[in-house]
Amino acid sequence: MIRYFYSVLLFLLGSTLIVNAQQIGTWQSHTAKSTVSLIVSDKDDRIWSATEGGLFVIDGQEIVDQFTPAEGMYRVSPSAMVYDEIRHRIWLGYPDGTFEYFDIENRRFRIIRDIARAEQYTPRGINTMLMKSDILYIATDFGIVIYNTSNMNTSETYFNLGEFTAGTRVQDIIFSGNQLYAATPVGIAMGDMENDNLEDPSAWVNYTASSGLSSENISKLGIHNGQVYAASEATFILDNDTWTTTDIFDSERVIDFSSTPEGDDLIGVTETVIYVLSNTIQRIEPDDGAHFNTALFQSETDQLYLGTINLGLGIIEDGQVTNLHYIMPPGPYLNYFMGLNFDGETIISGSSTRPGQAPPLPFATTGYYLYRDGNWESYNIETNEVLRQRNFNSAFTSAYTDDYYFFGSWGQGIARHHKESNDIQVFNAQNSPLTGITGGSNFVVVPGISTDRDGDLWIVSWQFEQGNPLFRYTPETEEWVSYPRSSQVQASHTYFNLKVDTFDQKWITLRSITEEGRGLLVLRTDGESIEESVRLSEGNGNIPSDGVNALVQDKRGEMWVGTDRGVVRFPFPDRVVIGNAADRQGSRLINADTTSGSAFLLTTIKATSIAVNAANEKWIGTEGDGLWLISEEGGRHRVKLHFTTENSPLISNNIISLAVDDETGDVFIATDQGLITYTDVTRGGEPEMAGLFIYPNPFSYQDNDERIVIDKLSERATVSIVGIDGRLVNRMETFGGRVEWNARDHNGNRVPTGVYMVIAVDEEDGSRGSGKVVIVR
Questions:
Q1: 24-53 pLDDT, tens per residue?
Q2: SS3 assignment for 247-307
Q3: Higher model confidence: residue 55 or residue 281?
């Protein structure tokens, strides 16, 4: 009977496409894996590299696996990693005290929060892990945790390492025979594992300055032929309970040690040189610009693996530096993204950290990205000769016109990138009217750029002194026009971010010289002069905070403003400058949930970025509170989604920038830990409706999360769900080209097994689209 029933349903479906298409609500990470900080080898001689963008695995010379939070990993940048040979697992530790293991055979992560939940000490970060049999030794910010992997329980914690203060940070640990050595900021502690009570402080021996450690802040430990090495400002060797300095590493500071399991070989890692201690000392100093983090020697394959800051994983075969080559997964150059913009099918972004801050790298590679045709293109002084000659770096704002991409920088002006030819021109104080941060300075900061409806580029120059802070550039004629400061702005205020609305008004955020928020300026220009302007603030405009961080215009023309204390919107932005006082009052988001304790939404968040999707819903990024999706219901607003690191693969709760691809529904989310995308239900509408694309189809309540996606809709349509008997089951008003139905009727009840017609009618021209879906209870 069941087989017969399915046959009937499939016959009734006719030509309807039956698929399980890509899932709405999926995540994909776009993280850089150029900085390799940890390396381990498993029993199959595969190499696992932990990076600032997650894990990647190589087998021979081929990348065979990659992991990020989108694949179940807890975070992208582990602080500790070790291989468990007994259970074939990779253990990872993190700076917040969370640790996890990846079961290689079952391809599954399991998160453990025992340390993260500990309340006796803060911070609780994990710095190093060691495996000995089935015991995991974890060096933390408050001592050493002993974790039994057979019963998955913490058996002991060593808080008191001899005479050191209880809860002293342990930065590294190693074994030498039965002795456990712990590196701390105040010296080294040694405990004999034959002692049954290492929780007793008297069971530990302490080494400090009196033992020869002239630099007591010990960061790393190593072992070679039974001799213990310690790295600090200098490098020390333990000899008969006394530490003496050694010049084996040519007085260079050792960043990391790596010993083979038997201790026959020791790798000393410095920033630019690798030392291999075996029967002899080999000094490896590549001339390719590599900067090192860590290393691993795999004696079985006689290969040396080098973790670099900037080039991924280096591999030296047969000990010959001439055989050195690098492996790095494709992706962006760095994990820094600012000023995301979406142009058709291309994402553009600056690749800087917070404006004015250099990344923790020994080189200035903060340029910009283009993501097109599924590939990342990185432009910086390492990859492009024009940018190298102009020393262009620290790009953090972006805009585009018909022919060009533009990137504003912190100190180097603007880069203009031709879309087709990839030709690059840099505009600065020497070849354009752009002015520096002070009079006569060539340090040109461009924190705001935006395009108007005529294709002109508007530019804000951040200045400490009086001058012309606003510019218009016409790409077709190469014409520049500069505009004086508005009379509404105090002498101590500077222009910062910029958004040109569809009425050609310029919305400009204001800051003090020390970058404190000073409200918002809205002005109109006439030719080469400022026509009118008004300054909005907490006291004049109902802005929740003078700290304005985000500006966006939605699909109805409203201006949305994100501040340090929530979000406000201006329903009639064309009236803000020329209207009366009531016209320039911002409106808080009225809460559609009348059972809530607050009449307004998002009044306590720090909104850092806002993006609008095809249904005119607002994605709102925050500092510390993740990502929100807000929908509107009759002038009121409702929280549709709220993603954090706790309930989603979101890399970080600190959102820097957002952009939406209306065609696919992908939301690009730049965080302080990298970039990730989320596939939203909503996307742009179809110009003409015909056969609707409905999936999963057939749908089963048992096998799915009660979400049926109806795709290929027009921009605005009414969708009706009709039973085979002609009875109306449910009806929805839709915005954008895709909507989801929860497979319930208008009373909220699950519908019976059967075939259902889906009929969509365009609200403007009455055109129709249709499809069928099978539902199985």
A1: 688 999 999 999 999 999 999 999 999 999
A2: CCCCCCCCCEEEECCCCCCEEEECCCCEEEECCCEEEECCCCCCCEEEEEEECCCCEEEEE
A3: 55
CA distances from 458 to 187, 277, 414, 416, 483 (A): 57, 59, 12, 13, 11
Residue 716 pLDDT: 84
Q: Which of 302, 323, 280, 318 is nearest to 41 (CA)?
A: 302
Residue tagged 């995308």 (tokens): 677
Residue with tokens 């009414």: 718
CA 278 and chain centroid, separation = 41
What are 466-475's pLDDT values in tens digits? 788 999 999 9
Please give the pLDDT value at position 361.
55
Cα–Cα distance, 167 to 773 (Å, whole number): 61
**Ordered DSSP codes for 626-654:** -EEEEEEETTEEEEEEEE-TTTS--S-SB
How far apart, in whole angstroms, are the C-alpha atoms of residue 480 and residue 458? 10
C-alpha dihedral, 364 to 370 to 375 to 376, nearest 10°: 10
Q: Are strands 313-317 and 303-308 parallel, antiparallel or unpaired?
A: antiparallel
CA distance 601 to 604: 9
Which residues are within 8 A (CB) of 727 and not within 5 positions of it... i.e. 6 or more apart? none
Neighbours of 580 (CB within 10 A): 8
Identity (one letter) of the amino acid at 663? Answer: E
The DSSP secondary structure of 105-134, one letter per residue, reads: TTTEEEEE-TTTT--SSS---EEEEEEETT
Q: Is the peptide bond before 95 cis (omega within 30 degrees of 0)?
A: no
The structure tokens listed for 661 are 């691809």
- Checking 479-484 for CB contacts under 8 A at 24+ apart, the result is 480/432, 480/433, 481/528, 482/433, 483/525, 483/528, 483/529, 483/530, 484/530
Q: How many residues does the chain have?
A: 777
Residue 210: DSSP 8-state: G
pTM: 0.87
CA–CA separation, 99 and 493 (whole Å): 47
User: What's the mean per-residue pLDDT of the chain?
Assistant: 90
